[in-house]
Amino acid sequence: MITISELRKVYRQGKREIVALDGVSLSVPKGAVHGIIGHSGAGKSTLVRCLTLLDRPTSGSVEINGVELSSVGDKEIRQARRRVGMVFQHANLLDSRTAGGNVAHPLELVGTPKAQIDESVARLLGLVGLAGFENAYPAQLSGGQRQRVGIARALAADPDVLLCDEPTSALDPGTTDEILDLIKELTVRLQLTVLIITHEMNVVKRVCDSVSLLEAGRIAEHGSLKEISEHAESRLAQALLPLPAVAEAPGQTVLDIMFSTETVHTPVLSSLARHFDIDVNVLSGSIEPIGGQQFGRLRIGLTEATDVAAVVQYLEEAGASVARPGSDTGEALQ
Q1: CATH number where 104 lies
Q2: DSSP letter string, 23-62
Q3: How far from chain centre, in Å, is Cα 245?
Q4: Which of 185, 211, 228 is the last residue of a domain?
Q5: Where is the domain boundary, 212, 228, 244?
Q6: What is the pLDDT of residues 2-39, one digit of tens each?
Q7: What's the whole-model pTM score?
Q8: pLDDT tens across 78-91, in order?
Q9: Among 8, 60, 95, 100, which is most buried by a count of CB atoms within 10 Å?
Q10: What is d(CA 186, CA 192) in angstroms, rounded to the nearest whole number?
């Protein structure tokens, strides 16, 4: 559904060139929810502007549902933008318009008949759980309700893709979960393809099927949540399954172990201890549901006399992924 190929965006300031996107390639299938995560300055905002055609890419292509958007002419740009519904961080509603008026606005801009607008507004507000709120102004709504209006407005043009730019960062945790559950529900009901730009790993864990780490304008890591969570060396995996800080373990070799659904409930450590006749010190651990499956991460300490290579081989043959912990840069993505 979404295919981004070798997307580059270069800004020029006098004689200086700033590369904001440097060959981003990404494919998201129809009906999937994909997260883009990264620090400030990684290129997330530029990617949003290129996907919504607010900025023209310097090179590369953006294709949605088989239609190449990045090369459309100025006359066709409004129609092209209708393929992408946009949900903003702060809803960006028009304060002078009611909830119904905000949802109606994009339909009015393209000359939709009034009777059809009224029907669409009622249907869309009902779809996001705000039936009967047509005449409420933004100031009369909670933050979560305003974001629901923003989602209804984004769906007004019947887009192929819903692009959400930090859709929950201004909301409290409870409301965040409600909005994310709504997005997931709409994805299934309307067969939407959703791209969520976020800096919050909890958003990715709750609603996304796959995730990409954007770093300095490039995709540094990418995969389904299951694929990511099975690789202990991945920074995204470390961020998906963060570990509490622990004291150093002098005289021990420390290993990080990732367990997938197939091994998370098996007694791997006890069998490891019996097999090698060693003590295994569990320093910290975490087990969480990710993408509808259970994943675990353990940090263990082994005495220096242990044959570490043999232990790693044993664990990997048991279905775990093993890495030596470094600076835990993945935790910094939280």
Answers
A1: 3.40.50.300
A2: EEEEEE-TT-EEEEE--TTSSHHHHHHHHTTSS--SEEEE
A3: 25
A4: 228
A5: 228
A6: 999 999 999 998 889 999 999 999 999 999 999 999 98
A7: 0.87
A8: 777 788 999 998 89
A9: 100
A10: 7
